[in-house]
Amino acid sequence: MRRNFFLRWTRVMRLSWRVRLTDSSGETIFRFGRRIAPPEGATPWGRVMDPLKQRRSRLEALSAMYSNLQANLAHDLRTPLAAIRGYIRLILEGRAGPVSPQQREYLGVIVENTDKLIHLANWMTRAGDAFGDEMEVAFVDLAELWRDCVSRQSIDVMRKSIRIEQSFSEDSFEVPGDRNRLRRAFDDALRVAVHYSSTNGRLTVRFSRLRDGGISVKFSGIAGAVPDAAPGPEQEGGLADAYDIISLHGGRLLVRRTPEEGSSVAITLPPVRSAGKHARAGRRSA
């Protein structure tokens, strides 16, 4: 029986080759191959990947240690603070004897600040859980992100006949972060600003660069009283999620209220620093 033979040459990855002799049915009759030595000065692939794998393992271990430390710290803060708040409330109820008006005022201030610290400890737990989620970090242009938010909420803005005046000190405001999460934070900020603005009102939004290189975004001209952005159960559904997202990116979200100018919402994000700058700063501090 006559058989047809085919010679096939195959390149395996970058530095290997293989020759295979087959018949017309594709059955292999003979094959051989070899691995070509890398060119002089080239770095083997394993020597490149092994340090990266080790670094990733160290980062994962550090992330787990940070999450555990944060959870323990939040628990250790909540326990004594809850006891302090409980005993002060007993004193305010008169369980330990009469309380003068001045003492009641002072104790009320202590309870108020204790509540803030307990809400902060609860936020630390939420933030630790959020860090466990996968974050897609890339450079995000906040000016472009803001324009997308305005376009998505244009119907709500037009419904209240609100005029948005926006100013940008630069063409681009890039920060490293998770685009989807930052978009959600800006969506919440704009939604709250529109909700608390009066009909036919004016909302001023200003993007600027801070002196240290950070980015500031300020919403002003809000007629209504915007609730505080600090973590707390009463802020759920308002700026609580935006507060968490901005904090996860190393920034701050603050709400200010004045009788004359109404409310304003300020978002600040830290500057982008290279590793070289950090190293020089460390040497100067040492």
Overview of the molecule:
This protein has 286 residues and is of the alpha+beta class. The chain folds into 3 domains: 5-35, no CATH class; 57-132; 137-269, 2-Layer Sandwich (Heat Shock Protein 90). 47% of the residues lie in helices and 25% in strands. It has 7 helices and 10 strands. Strands 5-7-8-10-9 form a 5-stranded mixed beta sheet. A 3-stranded antiparallel beta sheet has the order 1-2-3, with no helix packed on it. It has a two-stranded antiparallel ribbon with strand order 4-6. α1 (45-92) runs antiparallel to α2 (101-132), α3 crosses α5 and α5 packs antiparallel against α6 (240-248). The longest helix is centred in the first third of the chain and has 48 residues, at 45-92. It starts with a strand and ends with a helix.
Total number of strands:
10
Describe the main β-sheet briefly: 5 strands, mixed
Choose one word for the global shape.
flat
CATH topology of the largest domain: Heat Shock Protein 90
Radius of gyration: 30 Å
Multimeric status of the protein:
single chain
